[in-house]
Design brief:
Radius of gyration: 13 Å
Oligomer: single chain
Shape: globular
Order of helices and strands: HHH
Structural class: mainly alpha
Distance between the termini: 20 Å
Helix content: 40-55%
Low-confidence stretches: 60-66
Number of helices: 3
Length: 66
Amino acid sequence: MDAPVKFEQLVQFRVPTSMSAAIDHAAKQKCQSKSDYVRQSVVRQLEADGIAIRAPLLMSAHFTTA
């Protein structure tokens, strides 16, 4: 098993309670942490916007963009 990736930068933002609950629910459905779920969503949106990222630096052992 791969060692977990450590992320250096903390990004925080506020959302309505209903959005936080929806993120919790979606993450649980995918057996992911809330952080991994949000990180995956951001990566997908960046790619959709044409912004190239270096995926290995952004992923934990359980994170995929496929």
